Amino acid sequence: MICEADFILIRGCNDDVYGTGEALGLAAQVAVTLAGFAGVVVVFRPHSVHQWSNVDRFRLRLLLNNSILPLAYAVIGIFLLAIRPPPESIWRWCSAVATLCQLPFAIFNFTAVRKFSAVEFKGVSKVLFFPLFATGIATILLQLCNIAVWNWFWPFFAGIVVHLLAAMLQFMRLVLLPRPNEPPG
């Protein structure tokens, strides 16, 4: 059974500041944790970052960016929620900030992958990259709809969730995938 507070959290009305604030606070905690995991990955690798392959450095950049961007979005959302009364168009503003960050992020990542040589590109899982890229584009389109029409919390929060899921995936890939020229195990 969905109670009224759950509906408000899903729709993102400004009446339920606590539910949205708690969700943003939790997202910020997860983002900080994932950024910390990036440090763990760097410390436990046998070589310095400058000696990593281009693909592994790209994965580390994705992990860091997909951790820092949702942290920034969450902090901006929490800041705007702290204004009393919360601005009427709070989720439009948050989606606008997210879009302004996500567009260059998507363009940069797509052009970075296109610069990989054929040998390096073999290290990139096309099964993961292109669906994630398409999901990122869909998230940007959601943000644009939120700016133009909806002013709801959930499309803005969906952008945060997509970044965090991508960061988790990059962390797993950096930790679990075997590196070239290293013995397994």
Structural summary, described in words:
The chain has 185 residues and is mostly helical. The protein has helices at 4-11, 17-44, 54-82, 90-114, 118-121, 126-150, 153-176.
Sum up the overall morphology in one term.
Answer: globular
Rg is 18 Å
| Topology pattern, helix = H, strand = E | HHHHHHH
Characterize the quaternary organization of these chains: single chain
Stretches where pLDDT is under 50 for at least 5 consecutive residues are 1-15
Characterize the biggest β-sheet. none
Report helical residue fraction: over 70%
Supply the number of structural domains: 1
**Strands, count:** 0
Helix/strand-derived category reads mainly alpha
Work out the strand percent. Answer: under 5%
The overall pLDDT average reads 85
Number of helices: 7
Distance between the first and last residues' Cα: 48 Å
For this entry, give a set of tags:
single chain, mainly alpha, globular, disordered N terminus
Write the layout of secondary structure elements.
Blueprint: H1 4-11, H2 17-44, H3 54-82, H4 90-114, H5 118-121, H6 126-150, H7 153-176
Condensed summary:
By secondary structure, the protein is mainly α.
